[in-house]
Amino acid sequence: MCGIVGYIGNRSAQDVLLGGLKRLEYRGYDSSGISVINSDDSKISTQKSPGKIALLESLLKKKPLSGTAGIAHSRWATHGAPNHINAHPHADCKKEISLVHNGIIENYESLKTSLIKEGHHFLSQTDTEVIVHLIEKFYKNNTSLEEAVRKSLKLLVGSFAIGVISIREPDTLIGARLGSPLIIGVGKDENFLASDVPAVLESTKEVIFLEENEMVVLNRDSLRISSLSGKEVSRDPVRISWDIAQAQKQGYKHFMLKEINEQPKIIENLLKLRIKGERVIFEEQKIPEEKLKKIKNISIVACGTAYHAGLVGKYIIESICSIPVSVDVSSEFRYRNLLLDKDTLVIAVSQSGETADTLAGIKEAKKYGARVLSICNVLGSSLTRESDGVIYTHAGPEMGVASTKAYTAQLMAFYFLAFYLAELRGVLPRKKIAQELIELKKIPHQQKDILKNQAAIATLARRHSHLGSFLYLGRHVNFPSALEGALKLKEISYIPAEGYAAGEMKHGPIALIDEYRAVVCISPDSHVYEKMVSNIQEIRARQGKIIAIASLGDEKLKEQVKEIIYIPKCPEIFSPLLVVLPLQLIAYHIAVKRGCDVDQPRNLAKSVTVE
Ligand code: AGP
Hints:
Blueprint: E1 3-8, H1 13-23, E2 31-37, E3 44-50, H2 53-62, E4 69-75, E5 90-91, E6 97-102, H3 108-117, H4 129-138, H5 145-153, E7 160-166, E8 173-178, E9 183-186, E10 191-194, E11 206-209, E12 214-218, E13 223-227, E14 232-233, E15 238-239, H6 244-248, H7 255-274, E16 275-276, E17 279-280, H8 289-294, E18 297-302, H9 304-321, E19 325-329, H10 330-333, E20 344-350, H11 356-366, E21 371-376, H12 382-386, E22 389-392, H13 405-424, H14 430-440, H15 443-451, H16 454-463, E23 469-474, H17 479-493, E24 497-501, E25 517-523, H18 529-540, E26 545-551, E27 563-567, H19 576-593
Parallel strand pairs: 18-19, 18-20, 20-21, 21-22, 23-24, 23-25, 25-26, 26-27
Antiparallel strand pairs: 1-4, 1-10, 2-3, 2-4, 5-6, 6-7, 7-8, 8-12, 9-10, 9-11, 11-15, 12-13, 13-14, 16-17
Helix pairs in contact: 3-4, 4-5, 7-13, 7-15, 9-13, 9-17, 15-19, 16-19, 17-19
């Protein structure tokens, strides 16, 4: 999730663009850059830098770029390491055009190959760079920049929001979008482009939201919107009433709620990125396939929510590709007698890639000759540098301390890895994998159906916000879901909450049941559904307050439970991807009702970089 800003007006483009980038920092940054059309219209000057936007700012202080039109970009890398050469903006061979991009170009390799054959010279490993060379290819003779952009975008498969300038048309700034957001800020004798509203709010509250398949040509005192096929579009600006802080949450009250609602889109993007035809692919995974074919067991190590993702990963891998899996919390893993060897694959799961116990754990593991594969959300983080292979979760920066979208992106990594290994090791025929992937592709839509019902879930949650403790029960692949639901609630509402394997009720927890405690029973359609129904009957008999999560169409539970949250039917193995949304929303709305600081809960940090 990158940040784009464009400006054309009469002020210093550098100052306006930097200010806009800073307001988009929550979208992630591992590198950034800026291009400005020089005030004498002689050339485009560009400055880029890896790292935080402050580093770019310090470079510009030493060597300012003068000009009143330009583009800028803060990168959250998907293709190519976060370094200077891969930072945007990217230029054509003749340095006459400069472009910034947010999105994923799925067919960039084939486009790059044909452009190189036509004599184009590429500098970076990014997918983005193919776009600016395509524009260069068409931008000749009497073709305008607008037409060259239009012709280029028609060849792209994937998602994009772009900003483009050229020294040949110094009074023009072009934007276009498909699958990634782009807005227009309408000023007085100046106009703006941005990925999101916060970037322009200090200059104007008049905003036009570009829609899918649309392009805009901006001049200082005019703008023209059209469809990518060239049809004129007229759209009036809307006046934004948010302040900057609200705008960074895109109108949501907290980052956590925004991130809960981002999950369908993130899974859609991952499905596009990881599935090619009927197969799962991982470009960035570097462990040789020959080694992966030979592993005899898997050891997963992680903390907190990532540990719960690892527990789900155990069920996923053992049921899809029949490899024995153990799962440890990192703080135990690193101190116990590890029975690992060269036939073990250690999988470290971490959103931040900086968790001290997890880093220490894999350092221990490598002493035994085990290969380490990390599932991580932060490109270039310590964990990724210590690992033999990496699967990035591409969830974008997670600002809420309580992990939500990173968790479901970690689960997706396990599903993709399981199908990848099942094919590689000949455990499942490609046809069977293709059928499973068809079901997996339904998940984003099913998540959206659940989120359409979030107001009712909020009301149900608030009804229980006064209770002093919660018990979460699940079985099989949703036993970890019970642990995750309990962690979400306790870490943001401070209510004692425990997750348990429902089959364990008789071995202790049933003593807790009374009318002062809520029991969340995770009971979607599954091979252990009847067992969950028995647990629910045991709880009812003891006046426990039951909240059930059940599959749409479940008539049986209606007779037993008053408070039911329904989720769409899906294959049992994929159900954690749906079950977790009500669990996240219950925790969120109870915490809000109790006046807790949802995004920064007391005593917690987003990344625990100390033991
Ligand atoms: C989860 O909501 C918590 N924020 C916490 O348990 C977190 O999952 C844990 O600290 C692990 O962090 P990591 O994924 O960055 O390694």
